[in-house]
Design brief:
The structure is a single chain. The radius of gyration is 24 Å and the shape is globular. The strands form two sheets. Strands 4-3-2-5 form a four-stranded antiparallel sheet. The protein has a two-stranded antiparallel ribbon with strand order 1-6. Among the domains are: 56 residues, no CATH class; 230 residues, no CATH class. By secondary structure, the chain is mainly alpha-helical. Strand 3 and strand 4 form a beta hairpin.
């Protein structure tokens, strides 16, 4: 019998979309009333399925709605999205998403994810320009010689730096730009592409899972829970350090085996294909002249500017995409690429990442089906009901796992925070633990599932190197189990310290 081949990323996501569409026929539709602050009128807007009303923007209004959040969190803009109002869940008429909705979902998802898709395509064009100039080949050759015998430094340095971005400002989607750049560096160091993917993806994942000052998760979740974001900061910082150590040790053990014996690589059968994809061993040595050095400096400056813009200047996808487009044009001038050649190379480079962009859009389509089918709030309602009145330690562990499950239906970290915290945070008071435990459960729970969730960024990341999702699961499952057990132990223990 011919061996069955594991399906592609696009097929996996379409299967998931189909299963979610079926769920909309089974899971009752439901919705919480929502509350949002309107800065223009200085009023709250309460919305339900039946009507919309304006309410005075006062602390008394919040208290009457059982929303235990200081008014200034809304007026200052800390909480800018609509939050769910506790005790307002209502079952609604079912909105099952049939065949037509399923077929439309990838297109809706692509339209909805247009901002990140254009970022990926422009980055692809920039990478194409850099490859055409030979700057990457020259720079990688220089770096490989500089690190000869100390290649392990790459693993430690890349993982820690990416994790630092994750814990401070939610460095996630932006990492897509780093895979085409760093995978050739790791290949030149005699590692496989999985080591590079792991350092970047796991560094970002662990950093965001244990966010310390990340405004898109820690701060907005703490605000929505009615506590100061510094509450529990020390514990999250310790958790970051410990999980990062576990992750780096895991990556280094695998990397060491691959370096000693390439046949130990999980993706050894793709070795030649991946090396050809990233031009390993097939290019002539390029002299690292001043133009190429300046091109690499300009390329690196794009990332520095992006990080500064996102973390300090409230930039988002429009500004990031513009930065990379300008960078590509400047590099074209620096290396004297002809206008016609520039357009041709840029378009080809963008085309190389078109598959990655489509995966992102199809994944967003899964979220569209859940939203249109009105089942996300139902999942939240039953999840909050399950954890009521539990033992402290058991409550902490179950809530963490509950957030893992919810993150499949509500993949946005900021969206999860504002939708769930007004519902979940008061549960801490009934159990007798601090509300920071709820914030931690939210972060750790979402972070754990993110390591393997096909609706996250792992499939686009793997697609850049043509690595299958089954190979990733084979690589990550031992670490995933270790991190789940370690996290549940930490959460159970910490519950008794309050």
């Amino acid at each position: 019998m011919k061996k069955l081949k594991f399906p592609s990323a696009q097929t996996i996501l379409l299967i998931i979309a189909g299963l979610v569409a079926i769920l909309t026929f089974i899971v009752p539709a439901g919705k919480y009333d929502t509350l949002v602050y309107d800065n223009a009128s200085d009023m709250f807007i309460r919305a339900s399925q039946e009507n919309t009303e304006t309410l005075a923007a006062t602390q008394e209004t919040l208290e009457s709605l059982n929303v235990i959040i200081p008014l200034e969190k809304f007026t200052s803009g800390d909480i800018y999205k609509a939050i769910n109002i506790p005790n307002t869940y209502k079952e609604l008429d079912a909105k099952p998403q049939g065949l037509v909705a399923f077929l439309k979902s990838p297109i809706k998802g692509i339209i909805d994810a247009a901002d990140i898709i254009f970022l990926v395509l422009i980055i692809g064009g920039l990478i194409g320009i850099m490859n055409h100039t030979g700057a990457f080949d020259a720079g990688i050759g220089w770096l490989a010689n500089a690190l000869k015998g100390r290649e392990y430094i790459l693993i430690v340095l890349v993982t820690i730096l990416v994790a630092a971005g994750g814990t401070t400002f939610g460095f996630a989607e932006e990492t897509i730009a780093f895979f085409p750049i760093l995978i050739p560096v790791f290949l030149a160091a005699k590692y496989d592409a999985l080591v590079a993917i792991a350092c970047i993806f796991l560094g970002s994942s662990i950093g965001t899972m244990c966010s310390t000052v990340n405004p898109f998760s820690t701060i907005i979740a703490s605000d929505a829970a009615g506590i100061n974001w510094t509450t529990g900061l020390t514990g999250r910082a310790i958790m970051l350090g410990l999980t990062l150590i576990i992750t780096i040790i895991f990556i280094m053990r695998y990397a060491s085996r691959v370096k000693k014996d390439p046949t130990k690589s999980i993706i050894y059968s793709q070795k030649d294909q991946i090396e050809a994809l990233f031009h390993q061993g097939t290019v002539t040595v390029t002299k690292f002249n001043w133009r190429l050095r300046l091109a690499l400096l300009t390329f690196s400056a794009c990332f520095v500017i992006m990080i500064i813009g996102v973390s300090l200047l409230d930039w988002w996808f429009l500004e990031m995409t513009t930065t990379f487009l300008v960078g590509a044009i400047l590099i074209g001038f620096i290396t004297k690429i002809k206008e016609g050649d520039f357009i041709e190379v840029f378009v080809k480079g963008a085309g190389d990442l078109l598959g990655v962009a489509l995966i992102i859009g199809i994944a967003r389509g899964v979220t569209v089906i859940m939203s249109d089918g009105l089942i996300s709030d139902t999942m939240l309602y039953y999840a909050s009901d399950i954890t009521t009145g539990m033992n402290k330690g058991f409550f902490a562990s179950v809530l963490t796992l509950t957030y893992s499950g919810l993150s499949f239906f509500i993949p946005s970290s900021s969206g999860m925070a504002v939708l769930t915290m007004p519902i979940m945070a008061p549960l801490a008071d009934t159990v007798g633990v601090g509300r920071e435990l709820i914030v931690n459960a939210y972060q750790y729970g979402m972070g754990l599932l993110y390591l393997i969730s096909p609706t996250g960024l792992i499939l686009p990341s793997l697609a850049i190197a043509k690595v299958g999702y089954d190979k990733w699961l084979k690589f990550i499952l031992p670490l995933f189990i270790i991190l789940v057990l370690f996290t549940l132990l930490v959460m159970t223990t910490s519950a008794y310290l309050y």
